[in-house]
Batch of 4 targets.
Target 1
Amino acid sequence: MPLDEVNAGRPYGRFAIPGRDEGMEMLLDKAADGSRCSVVLGYALTGGNHADGTPEVRSTFVGGVSPGRTYAAEDGLSITLDEMGAYSGVIIKRDPAPRSCG
């Protein structure tokens, strides 16, 4: 799961679970001993919308997981964090028409 956003100065990402009205958010953090860990927040869409049109969500679980460990949520989902790594992303865009230089 790419943590390609920032929340409170820490890497953050949101992931929708395919085929379900649920997802999870992850925030990279450090444990008390200085090791890396991830805070995990599960959410579900309620089917309603706020006054501004954004979907209403409810939290389903909150937990933490470190590399090599599994967090089992009460709703039957489990999250295993095999490892944490770095990556570089590239966005490729095809322009609708060629441009001339001159």
Target 2
Amino acid sequence: MPRKFSDEFLCLFTIASLKYLGSSFMAVTFQLPLEIEDELRRELGDLDQAAKEAMLVELYRQDKLGHHQLSVALGLDRLETEVVLKKHNVVEDLPTDEEYNAALARLGIPIKP
């Protein structure tokens, strides 16, 4: 049975509105025990922004959002979005060894062992 918290220990946590399709917005809420919220606020500061950013970056990782959609949703330009992705350890997909070797072969460059 899941652990229940009384209302006094729960807080409604609202993620800052996510920009979606121009002028429409979506709000996401979830509950956190008060002691966890307090600890996270001390560590992260703006929880709404941190949660929004984390959720959007995860959607990007899962290929649910493209780079441009991520930028629009975060209200950032391309370079600022790259900084956010780097902060969350998201890097561009690098080619596999096989893809790299095939590209070298197409260019006539010998493959070094």
Target 3
Amino acid sequence: MATSPSGMGAINDPVVVPGPESRPDREIAAHELMERSRRLFDVMHAEDREEASGLHEAIQAAIQAGDTAALDEASRALKEAITKT
């Protein structure tokens, strides 16, 4: 096997660039965010509660699909929604 000039591994090994958070970390954070918003349902206006509920569905769908971009977007929107509560 050919190694890189630095001797760190094979030349053809893929380069992994870590993101700000791994997918499991994002999913855990999203679940925690949904739990936090559920605790606020009683004090939310009906429209905000409906929006939060829809965002919960979007987060679950993104997790199931493995779509980190959609997960990040829905999580950001939910965080904004509960911040105004």
Target 4
Amino acid sequence: MRSIRRVYNPLLNWALDNRRRLIAGAAVLFVGSLLIATRLGTEFLPIMDEGAFDMDISMLPGVSLTKAVETSKAVAVRLKRFPELETVVSRTGLTGIALEAAGSTRQASSASSSRNQNG
């Protein structure tokens, strides 16, 4: 603890004696970081335009399988209104990665585009 205080106390005294310099330095670093951030681009979040999307639907607990299939068909009809969509596939009871059964209360729909969005 003493070795920490030997370093901390002089730094604290310097900061208290040089408040304006310290605040100006912090402001310069902050503005510099903002300038650098504008140049980062989007390499951390690449554009994922694969011409397909997934959608999960949650229904009220206790929904019947008949109602779940009916809802699935209604979702497919609505999605097919978009002329870009060629294929719509729905799964009731399994969503996303099928690690566990979810019953009729969960449904996943996938749709794919008829044209390539990348080129």
